[in-house]
Design a protein that fits this description.
The complex is a heterodimer of chains A (about 190) and B (about 375).
Chain A: H1 3-19, H2 42-65, E1 84-93, E2 98-100, H3 110-113, E3 126-127, H4 132-148, E4 156-166, E5 173-178
Antiparallel strand pairs in A: 1-2, 1-3, 1-4, 4-5
Chain B: H1 8-22, E1 24-26, H2 28-53, H3 75-94, H4 98-113, H5 122-136, H6 145-152, E2 161-163, H7 165-187, H8 189-192, H9 195-203, H10 205-210, H11 215-221, H12 224-244, H13 248-268, H14 274-280, E3 293-297, H15 302-314, E4 320-324, E5 331-333, E6 339-341, H16 342-351, H17 357-374, H18 377-380
Parallel strand pairs in B: 3-4
Antiparallel strand pairs in B: 1-2, 3-5, 5-6
Helix pairs in contact in B: 2-3, 2-5, 3-4, 4-5, 5-7, 5-14, 7-12, 9-12, 12-13, 13-14, 16-17
Classes of the chains: A alpha+beta (about 190), B mainly alpha (about 375).
Amino acid sequence: MSKESFLTRKAAVKTVKWHQFGDGSAEASDVVPCDRLPVDTRARIVGRRAAVAVVVLAQLLLIARGYWSDHKQFAFQMFPESSTWRADVVRVTDGDQRVPVSEPWSGYRWEDLVTSRGLQTPWVRHHADAGVDNQLAFLTAALQWVADHTPRDHETRYLEATVTYWHNLDAPKTVVLRSHDRIGPP
Amino acid sequence: MTTLDVAPGRAGLLARVDELLGRRVSMRSLALLRIVAGPLVLLHLRPFVVDAAHGRIYRDAFYQPYVSWYPDLPRSLYIALLWIGAAAAIAMSAGLWTRLTTVTTFAVVAYNFFLSTTHFHNNRAYLFIVLAVLAVAPCGRELSIDAWARSRRGLPPLDPTAPGWPLWLLRFEASAIYGASGLSKLLDPDWFGGAVSWDRLVQSKDKLTATPLPGWVVSALTDRTVHVYAAKLVVLTELFIAIGLWWRGTRYVAVWVAVCFHLSIEASADVEVFSYLAIAALVIWAVPSTRDRMLGMDLSAAGQRWLATTVRRLDWLARFRVEETRSGPVRVVDRDGRVFRGGPAVVFVLSRLPLTAWFTLPVLLLLRAAATRRERPSLRGQDR
């Protein structure tokens, strides 16, 4: 066997093996059409048009929504702010005591209860990844969740966070967030 | 294909839209993206699976459902679902029962994603979008165990083309992501003026100083004046990618810039799977047709044999139809009839392979610039 024919044959063998996984070289006449219907039906054309229109419209609306909503799902505003924040979160008890949540209580630890969105250690100054408004919205929801999910705690009336935030290079601002009053023990 | 009966005024536009959405195109790029998406799903699910292995799931700590009626599964079932999602992702990547495993992967990722607002991150949203498109597109007819098994049974391959609407939709989404990000920065005076990026780097100055970067680089990176211009460059880069990907004249530059852009993000920020996914998703911008460029090679020449092997192994988007020639240099006939020979042909080939494109596209650009100056016919398509 000449060198050339050997090489040609070797290349051909490899092509055949790769072809088995589908190498895009199949001719139209070699392939099996896969659509159940040989032609597009009216329903299929309209459905396709509607699906694309709905997705495009929804995406554009979600992008627009990102400019006013605290939560910016599918708005794709990447690295929106350099803002930072910190918060003193306390439990306000029936006796009006203000106890920092950095201290464990009734077998609970804040760090175990709130583990995501940079809320695990609110008393440390953090970057607000998705913007200050988003961070405050999550902190409010977290206060609420902790208030609702600490059944062994019979002394806390509500949780309160005094938040200081620095929006980009602006001067710091302070806001107070609080959970609802907890329902007493049964 | 049939067209709908519509009023004559709208017929032209709607017919064009319908033709575009229903046009049969190669699903090759989505098949390739499917392969990459599997490992990315595993990376995405990993923290959830690890937490579950330690006995923790999302509802053991603060979480916030989008809607009250969204179903919470029993703990064991939720954990099983995560494992099913991981297994399905592996099978999807391999192309085993592709339609079933792709839909399953998408369903698991989507269910987990929408369990809580705390699960939302932009990179996960992009993964959700990509999986949604893969779930509706027939992307398992190529580069799959399904195709291999079919071939082993002696059956003819399934048609690798399909109506292009999922591909166009994913292109729109990919472009929208760059566009939305760039637009939000353009409209924010703090961002466009450089305050945001400068402030972030100043906040990270300690980390920057700890890196092997020279002092003058750290100094430049934390110089506010630099950011006045750099911020505009970032905004324009994102907008350029969003728009440039749509036109053939700018597409290769946009892809090249996008790769640089994502690598720089990956090096400077924790964005989970975003960089990998976004770079992988750039394959969707390849013209959706296969083997429409002819690559002629003399396989008796060692150098050309090497190129043939390279093309065979790295031509994942099936750009070239390799044909053996008796002698002479490497010859490429592009889909528009342009002919390249010798070195320029090799550079052209490498610039169309996903793994080598980023390195060779600038070389191709230089060659073209030189050819334009010297009016070399082989690069200007005068020997069609």
